Amino acid sequence: MKSKAMDFTFRYGSLMIIAFVILFFSLWNENFFTYGNLTDILRSISIVTFVAIGVTFSLTVDGFDLSVGSTVSLTTVVAAALMVWYEQPLYVVIILPLVLGAIVGLINSLLIVRIRIPDLLATLAIMYIVAGVHKTFTKGYSIYNNMQLTDGTTAPGTFDESFLWLGQGKWLGIPVPVILMIIAVVLVHLFFTYTKYGRQMAMTGGNEEAARLSGVRVKRIRTAAYVASGVFAAIGGILFAARVGTGQVDAGASLLMESVAAVFVGYSVLGAGKPNVIGTFFGAVLIGVLLNGMTMMNLQYYTNDIVKGSVLVLALAVTFIHLNRKKQ
Amino acid sequence: MAKASKGLNMRNIGKSFAGVPALSGVDFEVRPGEIHALLGANGAGKSTLMKILSGAYTNDSGDIVIDGGTAAIRTPADAKANGIHCVYQEVDTALVPQLTVTENVMLDRISAPGGKGWLRWGSLHREAESVLSQLGAHIPVRKRVSELTLAEKQLVLIARLLTEQARYVIFDEPTAPLSLDEAERLFGVMQQLKNNGIGCIFITHRLPEVFRMCDRITVMRDGRRVMTAETQHTDIEEVVREMLGRSFAEEYPKTDAVIGSTVLTVSKLSRARYVRDVSFEVRAGEIVAIVGLVGAGKTELSRLLFGADKKDSGDVRVYGRQLDLSDPASAIAGGIALVPEERRKQGILVSESVGRNLSLPILKTLTRLGFISKQRETRNAASIIERLGIKTSSPALQTMYLSGGNQQKVSIGKWLSTDVAVFVFDEPTKGVDIGAKSDIFRIIGQLAEQGKAIVYLTCEFTEAMGIADRILVMCDGRLAGSFLREEATQEQLLLYASGGGEVNG
Which pTM does this prediction carry? Predict the structure, then answer.
């Protein structure tokens, strides 16, 4: 009886919490449950969701990637600099950051898969290196239209209109980043559910040795997962630049925490018990709703960290209680 | 039994696990200053008996008597207090690798409660040195244990036992991982202990060592003691006979497959000291068993054939084409499949469903336009489940809920839809019940009938004699003998597997 109740809590608990939080804020403030505010929430979580999809990849192969936040910061300022400093065409502005994200992923996988440094330590080091690179590149300044350069002149370029559309535009009344996010969630879900490589990633994460002895080329699979992690973080960085319209230094600093929390909330969505992209999306929704609602309640900005941390701890507690219970 | 006052006596020891008796009425005696061999096939009860003596298990019945007084041994600490120590094969678990040789040898002294608080390193080093040199071992005492060879670590462990006033030492297969020279040196040390009046219990599978080193021999079988004798009053043949007993009448459904041309050719395959210069051939439809004792190198050989470990030299051919053995995926592409020994860790993914396990090696063929066809996947799973008689409520059930035998069938079944030519089985019947066992033999027989080449590695000689066309005996990483099914006897197999093949010519 008790274990049935536990199973039920694990399956539906996180969805019920999301519903409860939405209900709570709706009753608290009449402006909360409006079309405008709900699309706002979705737009605000679109970037986190992209980064969290990347984290879902690395966790699926039983790895971890701490460097995603720094990768967001790097790709944000690179995308901005390509337009403002170097006046590059749109396709360069989009492709180069993606390539950079892939390179960070490749370096991570080189350290983790080939040299066999534990994932947390390797990506911790890379997190600092990438953060340092992005600040060195911008000399610590954010990048914006008509900014003053160090030689006293004004920056030659400006943010491209169609680039800004990616972060700020609407299509059929729906914000473009929200559309992109939904497409990404659906595609990645299809990837994990119906493709060979998605299946092999799940198997590698489940038991690397058994997967290897079944003919899965586990090194390649793990490498691919870290590259995906870097690329999705880079997409997050591009969207960040497009949404804000500047190249903020340290843009991704808070995103590591939020995306990890989203993924672990996702563990328990519908009782999955493992990383899954649909759950990740709902995890991001929960965090977005909480932050939005708290802003409406005029709570001090810095309490956000307390809430985010608590959500992560709670999600981890639920997940590990469940996993350990299953083991016995 | 008046003179039994000196020495260690285990009397009428009984022990059951979950109602299954592991030991019944075992008597075992060790005198100070003797080396006493404890022999028996796998599962005869040697280790259970020794675990009782060293306090890891407690006995259900019987007494342990030391020097005439009953000793209550319930924990490893009790055993140590009575002067009983162990040298396990896994010496690493007993040593602290980051510390120096001195610190390890003198561990007891250093960590003893009520010490003065100051350590006098100079005298500690000197003492450690003197204990080691008593053993004839010259190991720099300031070196870290992690930098020592396995043989040196054993010596450090033995030196520590001496500082702890050991009176009885259990050697549990200490020579299995050693080279000949290293084993020689260990024998010297055992001789030394014996001269110091310490009673040694020596567990090993290598019979020639026993006859060289030991004063007395005790043989166990099926949880009972079947023989104790002075070494000079017995011989290898008698010991082997006692180890095997005479009660084996298991039935094996051996089907006669048509044996075709050579499929698998292995030449001079080597990896470190685990597998040395192994060469053999297997033909289509032929079942070749490779038997050997635990630690003979069978599992290592199977992993080499499959590219799971890196070989040092040698090559493997299938239909004359040399295989790329850089990883299992390449070996599979070349036509070899492995059903590994540790099925729950290596053979299947326990938290995945039966269906997903069965489709893992053939995802490519199940994929259409980039997507896995659920229909094909379901059909494949259903057909294998039916063909092998896997008992599962549904293909979607997680494999962790299956019985051991059914898990093994999944581990085999995942290869059935591939087109590999060679199947390697490593101890496939380990831990499965009788019914599933004969199912597995039947499946292997069917594969042979289809013209697959089968390599069957096992330490159960009766199994090998039951299903194989040919039996190769492995000992210390080498192939020591080759027999046709009709000409093999258990005695001979065990003799060769124990390194006695050369002794008897």
Answer: 0.77
